[in-house]
Amino acid sequence: MKVKKKQTREERLEKKRQAEKLRYQRIKNDPVKNAQLKEKEKQQYKKKKEKGQIKTIKDMSEREQRAIRKIWREKTKKHRDRVKLQITRNNPITPPASDNEDQPPLPENNIALAAKR
Question: Which residues contact 27 (CB under 8 A, 6 or more apart)?
Answer without folding.
Answer: 33, 34, 37
